[in-house]
Structures are given as C-alpha cells and as structure tokens.
Design goal:
The chain is an alpha/beta fold and 584 residues long. It contains 15 helices and 31 strands.
Length: 584
C-alpha cells in the first residue's frame, strides 16, 4: 500500500455506572493504525501520511498539509472520536451523543452571503436582497483562503462524501470538510449515505462545504459584512465556507438553498416541506417553517415517512433530499410524539438539549434554548419509506403558526387561494429558531421558506401552480398556532386537535363535513369537525370579546394585503383577488 493507509474498525460500548455512556473499542478491534481488507467494501476509511489529503480528494481545494483524514466514518467510529476529542457527552438515553453548540443555537441568516459573480448564470437568476446578500468575489477569496490555511494547521480533519436528493435524475454529490467528528456525525445523519466504497469511487462533488467553525472573520467590517460570522457561498466555484458558527443546521440548510437554485432551472419544484405516504400510495406534503409541525405531523404511525423537511417534485412524483430528520425537542414526550421520541437512540445526536446529572435528557428544560434539536437517520423511524420517494401528492397542506389567534385550525383552499397562501407564507417565528428570537413574532415567509429561496418566489409559485393543476392535488391551510386570543392571551392548539384535522384531510372525511366561507379571508372553514372542539374549529367562538376578534382579523388581513404587494406587477400572475378582502 501507499503511505496513505485505509483503516476500518468496529466499536463496542461500555457503561459508566447508571449515568453517561462511554464508547470503547471491542477486544476484536484493531487500533486506528491497523489496515484491514474490509476497507475496500466500506466507505469508511482513514488516510494518513503525506498523501492523505490527495487520497481524500481535498488537495484540489488547497488543503494539502493535514496528517490524517477520517473519511465517511461509521457511527461507531465517530462515537469514539467524539469521546476522545471531548466534543460532548453520551447520554444515558441509549447512549445518544449530545453536543452544545455554544452561543449559536440557531441559524444566523444575516450572516449568509452569496458571491455576486458579475454576468454569471447565478448573477442573472438569483433573488438578490436581504435573503441572498451579495458578496464580492475578492472577499470570498479571502475567507476561503482563511479556512484553507486553518485546515492546513490541523493534525486531523473529517471528510464526508454523500448525496442530496433521492431522485437519481437530479441527485447532487456533496462533500463536507469538518474540524470535528460530531459535525461529520450530523451530516452522516442528514444526507444520503453511501453504502459501499464503490458508491463514492472517483467522487467528483457537485458542491463542497468547508466548515471552519472555530475561526472567525476579524476583518468583517472591512469586508462590509454584518459580524465575524460568515456562511459564504460561491456557486460558480462550487464551494462554500462556514466561519464562526458551530450550529449544525448551517450545514444542511446551505445545501438546501443550493437545491432551491439548481432544481427550478431543471423544471423541478424544490419544497420546504415534509412528506408521507399512505398504504394506498397516496402522498401528502406538509409545507411550513420551523416550529409549525412539519416533522411532528409527518411522523404518522399509519403512514410511511418519506422525509421531514426538504423535498422535490418532478415528473415522477415526490422525493426526499435527505437521509435523516432534524426535529425540535422542546417539550418532547413519548406520549405526544412517540415516533420522534423513540428515534432518539444510539447514532442519533442531540444538540443543545439539557441533560440532568445522571445523563437523562430533559426536553422541558429550555434554559439553553427553545431550539433544542435531535438529528437521526431516517431509518430510526420504523415506518419510513425505504425508497424516500412518493407519488404525485393527493393533498398539499400549508402549516402556519398564527400568533394572533385568528385563523381556524383547518380551511380548504381553492387553487387561487393556494397560490396566495403559498406566496404569503404567513406564520410566526418560533422562539429559538433564529438568533435573538425569544417570543413568537408574526412574519411572512414566501413559499414557507423565504430564508432558503435563491430565486424569486414567483418562479417557485409558477412551478407549484403547474404541478397542482396537472395532478389535481387538494390544498389546505392548517393553523398550529393560537386559539382564543393571541400570544399571552389564547392557548396553543393542542397536537390532538391538529392531528384530528390532518387525519380528516388524509382519510378524506373532511370532504363530508359542511363548510362556510370566512367573510374576510374567503377560504372554506368546517362548521364542525370530529375530534376538534367547535369553538376551536370556529375561531371567533373562542374569543370572549367578538369585537376584538373582528378587529384582530382585520388587522391580520391588512398585513396580508400589504405583504402581498411585492408579488404584483408586470410579468407575474396576480393572485391578489384570492387573498383577504376588507369592506371599505
């Protein structure tokens, strides 16, 4: 063999009393310096020596001076690295690894930048502005050099080669370069994992993310940036750099934003949604921002989970982008969310979740953050869909978290209303999902995911409209927010009531109930629905002061109207008539 040695190893585990769990190699396992024949079969390998970076495929980035590269490590191998590097602890909950990401417990959207390469394809197609902030090429080059130089000082690094998108026709090859084992653990959970070394032989990535999280950009003011943190993307160079933030979600959302760029150019609809499929092959999509219930509501014991967050819709149907799930853990219990609760076991990874002294996770303790998370491979959900694909959806559900307590728990939308609600993307920012958000705030997020859109929202709307019309999909708006008043007055919808609404949609029984039209928003609202109290189904009934409800509804309607003005004008389909209408 060459000086770059490949190593694979298995690991056992041993308990430390009744508390934290510690991983140790089993007696039959060789040391990290050992060479085994099984390396040729497994994608897991270790490269060491002067040719390590070349063997790992990262020398072309300028990373040429790392002594050892750990590539596509198994979960057992990653566990040993996590322990040896003191990157976190293993909880007493089935040995699940737990990590604290410091001050960054959510995304930092004001620190996301895309290089504006003048005259390039991306320059012509990108939706420049607050979401996609332009960065000068020379600034990116400095940040890229900083990241590369940092990795060239390290004794070891972690590389993951994997895939995004279960549809082979549009699947992208992605590579991550990390400082820490837990970050490779995260992307191993979240992306589609290669099963054998042959799957990534001669791997030529469509995109690479270099995550130098321990480094900050001291020259951020000189560069015209917003802070010392930077998530910088160069589409033409097919590489991104992360500096200053340890939050795991930046890895996956960076690639999701890119899928939102690549796929529409191929005529494929990318979606910030979860998806599941029934026993009869009926697929349902759940659009919604973080905290609205995408992950919770798509984890249904009577249906197979396709995925919980990011999907595409092409000519063959729907498909998951990912190989895992990333669920919020706040107030998690086995009684309310059994599938997610039981998915937290060995190989899952907790982020910013409080652990008691004996190593037991406490999901009700949110002193650290309300955005505690768990990532786990999708096969931790027993009834996941093995193909990660589904049919053309029969039902499309827009989830919103209404902070004003105005919207009904479920309403049926006609095609025009569906497009209006999709472009509006009304919800509330839920505490903890972004830095500085400690209480729910009403917001409008185009396509229920404006933070991840890279081209203009109306282009996604045009794609979705075509899909809905072509396949006759039904659309509904489901409110998982407040009833009987806004935040601080009313109460959050119970998950039982929300699930009753979802069940009625999926089994078709909602079509048998009597509806009435909302006088302001125009959508159809059930007069009653089994499993949901009447004063919840009809939100005005839950308010003690009906005049206050009417005033609040009108206020929200005005917010919708003002927000939607930016989606009108020459060259776009105007859905204003399908939004709320106020009497003058």
């Amino acid at each position: 063999m060459s000086a770059a040695m490949k190593t694979t190893m298995g690991l056992g585990r041993a308990r430390l009393g009744a508390g934290l769990t510690k991983y140790r190699p089993s007696a039959s396992v060789r040391s990290l310096s050992a060479v085994t024949d099984s390396a040729s079969e497994s994608p897991s390998c270790v490269y060491s020596g002067p040719d390590a970076t070349k063997q790992a495929g990262i020398d072309g980035l300028g990373i040429t001076n790392i002594g050892t590269i750990y590539k596509n490590q198994t979960y057992e191998e990653l566990a040993e690295h996590e322990e040896r590097n003191n990157e976190g602890v293993f909880s007493s909950h089935d040995g699940c690894f737990a990590v604290d990401t410091g001050v960054f417990t959510g995304r930092s959207p004001s620190d996301k930048w895309i290089v504006k390469n003048e005259g390039s394809e991306s320059d012509k197609n990108l939706w420049w502005g607050k979401v996609n902030q332009p960065m000068k090429p020379e600034v990116f080059d400095e940040l890229f050099e900083k990241a590369v130089n940092h990795f060239n000082t390290l004794d070891k690094a972690y590389v993951f080669d994997g895939f995004c998108g279960a549809s082979l026709a549009s699947q992208k090859k992605v590579r991550f370069v990390h400082e820490l084992a837990w970050q490779q653990h995260f992307v191993t959970n979240m992306f589609i994992r290669p099963e054998t070394a042959a799957d990534i032989a001669d791997f030529d990535p469509d995109f690479t993310i270099i995550n130098a999280c321990s480094q900050v950009n001291e020259k951020w003011e000189e560069h015209g940036l917003n802070s010392e943190v930077a998530v910088a993307v160069n589409i033409e160079k097919k590489v991104a750099v992360i500096l200053g933030t340890w939050y795991g979600g930046e890895n996956k959302k960076g690639i999701f934003s890119l899928m939102n760029y690549w796929l529409p150019l191929e005529g494929i609809m990318p979606m910030h949604c979860s998806a599941n499929i029934g026993k009869d092959g009926d697929t349902a999509l759940f659009f919604g921002l973080s905290g609205t219930g995408k992950t919770t509501l798509s984890a249904d014991p009577d249906r197979n989970l396709i995925g919980d967050d990011e999907h595409g819709w092409d000519d063959d149907g729907t498909f998951n982008f990912e190989g895992g799930c990333y669920a919020k853990t706040i107030n998690l219990s086995e009684e309310t969310e059994p599938d997610i609760y039981r998915a937290i076991k060995r190989d899952a990874m907790l982020e910013n979740v409080h652990l008691d002294a004996d190593g037991t996770p406490d999901y009700f303790n949110v002193e650290k953050t309300q955005n505690g998370r768990v990532s786990y491979p999708i096969h931790h959900i027993p009834n996941h869909e093995p193909s990660s694909t589904g049919s053309h959806p029969q039902n499309v559900i827009f989830l919103t978290c209404d902070a004003f307590g105005v919207l009904p728990p479920v309403s049926k939308l006609n095609s025009g209303q569906a497009m209006y609600q999709f472009l509006s993307g009304y919800t509330a920012k839920v505490a903890g999902t972004e830095r500085g958000v400690t209480e729910p705030e009403a917001t409008f997020s185009a396509c229920f995911g404006a933070a991840f859109l890279t081209i203009h929202p109306t282009r996604y709307a045009d794609l979705l409209s075509k899909k809905l019309e072509e396949h006759g999909s039904d659309a509904y708006l489901v409110n998982t927010g407040w009833s009987g008043g806004g935040v601080g007055v009313g109460e959050r919808m119970s998950i039982g009531a929300t699930r009753a609404c979802i069940s009625a949609i999926l089994d078709g029984s909602i079509k048998d109930v009597e509806f009435e039209q909302d006088p302001v928003f125009g959508f159809d609202v059930p007069k009653s629905l089994p499993g949901v109290p009447d004063n919840v189904v009809q939100p005005r009934m839950a308010w003690e002061d009906k005049d206050s409800y009417d005033a609040q509804r009108n206020k929200l309607a005005e917010m919708f109207q003002k927000n939607y003005e930016k989606f009108t004008g020459p060259g776009v389909t105007d859905y204003t008539a399908f939004g709320p209408q106020l009497k003058k």
